[in-house]
User: Fold this.
Amino acid sequence: MQLSYWEQQSYFEGIDLLIIGGGIVGLNAALAVKEIRPELKVLVIDRGAFLPYGASTRNAGFACFGSMSELIDDLQRNSFEEVFSLVQRRYEGLQRLRSLLKDVDIQYEENGGFEVFREEEEGLYNNCRSRIEEFNAELERRTGRRNIYSEASSKITDFGFGGVGKMILNSGEGQLDTGAMMKGLLHLVRAKNIEVLTGIEVRGWSTKAGLLEIETGNGFSITTAKMLITTNGFARQLLPDLEVEPGRAQVLITKPVDHLQFKGTFHYDKGYYYFRNVGNRVLFGGGRNLNFEAERTWDFDLTHPVQGRLEELLSQMILPGQAYEIDRRWSGIMGLGPTKSAIIREAEPHVFCAVRMGGMGVAIGSLVGREVAELICKVFKRKQLLSSKIHLFKRSDRREPAANATPACRIFSIVSFSWVSFPKIHLFKPVGAGRPNPPDATPACRILA
Ligand SMILES: Cc1cc2nc3c(=O)[nH]c(=O)nc-3n(C[C@H](O)[C@H](O)[C@H](O)COP(=O)(O)OP(=O)(O)OC[C@H]3O[C@@H](n4cnc5c(N)ncnc54)[C@H](O)[C@@H]3O)c2cc1C
Assistant:
């Protein structure tokens, strides 16, 4: 595919930051960069045919930050501080998401999150039950919310579950409409004049004259000063050294169920299974632990063992004795690793990444987007990198100073030195004192500085 002059000019010229991946993280990063540095030109691209195609439009919409058995499990491999600072970050991420998008628009409801223990799981339940006070004290210190976890087994009969012996409530957990959240984020991003283009796949990149030239699978390349990779579960396709594995998550949703007896989000088996109401439908997902190896994949296929187990638990545990029909099934790809913390860093010069959201990117994604944006903007500031947008001189002999050129530059621009007229070379910073020359500044520039 060849780009027309107009397409090139309007969409791909003078990009300061190219974000690859238009999921929760990529969109939040784009928003935050524009908030910190409104003058930067940011473009988001995604290979999804018409929507971002990873996990952000395909998840279960749990606004959650940790069930008790999951945290206890995490404590076997991580310190108390590591586990609870991650819980705190998820909680803060959710508050940030809710400050960006109105609760009513994303249909955020705080119906609570319940951890269910089947009758044969008394031991696991007792272990969790014994730590409620300790976890509540820690979470109150970190979130200001009191008594987040509490015993809730008395509700089992009301909810109509089968074979469930005990439940623990997380009163801070909510649920949202994933589609509305992504539409809302896309709307905010576009309102900031940031283009989001789908159907563009990045294959690789090279560095030319201090800029990155991005090779796409569409037959054209894109030039940018910096790049941010937010491809999460697919991160290793572009940065093979990153410790990020894909993890497929499969879900199903029922048609509306008559007299559905429960509302809220539910976790079972250390978080490997999860279900919730969506109006009076049931969304149910999980089962990756049936065969970790098979689910470590970039394929979006559905498998019989996982779907079969979901159906079994749906009929025996969630909707026993009730009539229902399955409406739809789908999968999405998560980014997992040896620890649950995200990777946020400059992977190589000018190439940043913010990946590995685990199973809680709805919660943590907006915070991670903000953090990587701050990192990028700091580096932009420090290095005063070449922005292909801010030319003090045009390539042509007319040598007009740019709108943001310094007074010295404006005077200089009337003088006819053709050898100072290079593209993409700043003779001076647009503002501020000091004005160091870039390494490739011309001799005339060095004298004038
Ligand atoms: C079924 C399921 C249920 C989940 N449920 C929940 C939940 O209830 N609560 C929760 O907090 N989290 C949940 N998650 C996890 C959450 O959805 C993710 O952590 C989060 O969406 C990750 O966002 P992201 O922006 O990092 O990545 P993604 O949304 O995966 O975005 C990455 C994007 O990169 C694009 N891309 C990849 N490679 C390229 C390339 N080479 N060129 C261009 N584009 C590329 C992809 O098309 C994709 O759109 C769930 C995930 C799944 C799959």
